[in-house]
Design a protein that fits this description.
It is built from 5 helices and 5 strands. It is α+β, with helices and mostly antiparallel strands and 118 residues long. It has one domain: Gcn5-related N-acetyltransferase (GNAT) (Aminopeptidase). A 5-stranded antiparallel β-sheet has the order 1-2-3-4-5. 35% of the residues lie in helices and 20% in strands.
């Protein structure tokens, strides 16, 4: 699947790459980041890889999904954002409710959800 790229003033939203694992695993290992998605203790590298593979597969199966969020100024991955719909999902009443983000550096990337949705 060729995942479309989206650019905002600060961010590049792009598809997942194999080489994203190191940065993604570091983000997922931080309990301050993952507690917002129900993982109070962070994730192992293996579990981070599984999530990454899930995001790639979601694009393939559904034609939409989560992008990697890249800070355009530094080139660093700062999280992920996008839509997901698994078999048991309830349909959300708004795009903002269905749009999920997970970002490292909450202060530096405050507003990333709104920026990515636009």
């Amino acid at each position: 699947m060729n995942v479309p790229e989206v650019r905002t003033d600060r961010l590049l939203l792009r598809g997942w790459r194999d080489e994203d694992l190191d940065e993604w695993a570091a983000i997922c290992a931080d309990p301050e980041v993952t507690r917002w998605v129900g993982e109070d203790d962070g994730l192992s590298r293996e579990d981070a890889w599984r999530r990454m593979a899930y995001f790639v597969g979601h694009w393939e199966l559904r034609g939409f999904g989560n992008w990697v969020l890249v800070d355009k100024a530094t080139g660093a991955m700062v999280g992920r954002a996008g839509l997901y719909l698994h078999e048991l999902s309830l349909v959300s009443s708004s795009l903002e409710d269905a749009f999920m983000t997970l970002t490292a550096g909450a202060v530096e990337y405050a507003g990333s959800t709104v920026e990515a949705v636009r």
